[in-house]
Amino acid sequence: SDQSIMVKLGKTVYHYFHFKARPHTFENAITLRRSMTSVEMKLWQILRNRGMCGYKFRRQHPVDIFIVDFYCHELKLAIEVDGNIHLKKRDYDEGRTAELNNLGIQVIRFTNEQIENDIADVLRQIKYQISDITNQISNNCSRHNCIYENKLKQ
Q1: What is the pLDDT of residues 50-83, one digit of tens each?
Q2: Of the candidates 24, 54, 60, 61, which lies 20 to 30 Å from 34 by C-alpha distance?
Q3: Could you tell me the pTM of the whole model?
Q4: Cβ(95)–Cβ(66) under 8 Å?
Q5: What DSSP character marks residue 138?
Q6: CB under 8 Å to 23, separation ≥6 — which residues?
Q7: Environment class of residue 112 by beta-carbon count within 10 Å: exposed (0-12), middle (13-18) or buried (19+)?
Q8: Is residue 58 within 8 Å of residue 70, measured between CB atoms?
Q9: Under DSSP, is residue 36 helix (H, G, I), strand (E, B) or coil?
Q10: Could you give the residue ranges of the DSSP H alpha helices within 1-154?
Q11: What is the DSSP secondary structure assignment for residue 146, as one 8-state letter?
């Protein structure tokens, strides 16, 4: 069952957020969207506008008490970008991943270095995760036209 709610912050009404996120979590997500790291922006430029196999990803998306870096509701897939701070928070990250998994959300994690140094491999891993989720393991995303290869050339 979909656990969507509607939240009003100021004059803006946010629809279709999930898993009973509370208003303060939405406010924190807005702040995080405004202060994304350069590495998060690099990945976002590819994921946005259905750039990854035609699936819609949201950035800094509230899920229950958490805010995931990138989230596709259709796939129930969260993508997390782990900076240096995460080296000290492994236990927390593992618990967070377990809680997200309990909500039916798969989590894939990448370090800043992976995104910075080998974005093509990161995108391949995301694509294979999508293929695994949709049971369409192939070298191209047959459901949609993958346009991320063109974005890499820019």
Answers
A1: 999 999 999 999 888 888 999 999 999 999 999 8
A2: 54
A3: 0.74
A4: no
A5: S
A6: 7, 9
A7: middle
A8: yes
A9: coil
A10: 23-34, 38-47, 90-102, 112-117, 119-133, 148-153
A11: -
d(CA 40, CA 67): 14
Containing 16, the helix (H) or strand (E) segment is: strand 12-17
Tens-digit pLDDT profile for residues 86-125: 566 778 889 999 999 998 899 999 999 999 999 999 999 9
What is the distance between the alpha carbons of residues 8 and 26, in angstroms, rounded to a whole number? 10
Dist. CA 80–CA 68, nearest whole Å: 6
C-alpha dist (Å) from residue 58 to 6, 136, 153: 16, 23, 23
Strand partners of residue 108: 79
How far apart, in Å, are the Cα atoms of 110 and each of 18, 24, 57?
A: 23, 27, 16
Confidence of residue 85 (pLDDT cuts 50, 70, 90): low
> Rounded CA gap, 146 and 143, in Å?
9
Strand partners, 59: 70
pLDDT, residue 38, reads 93
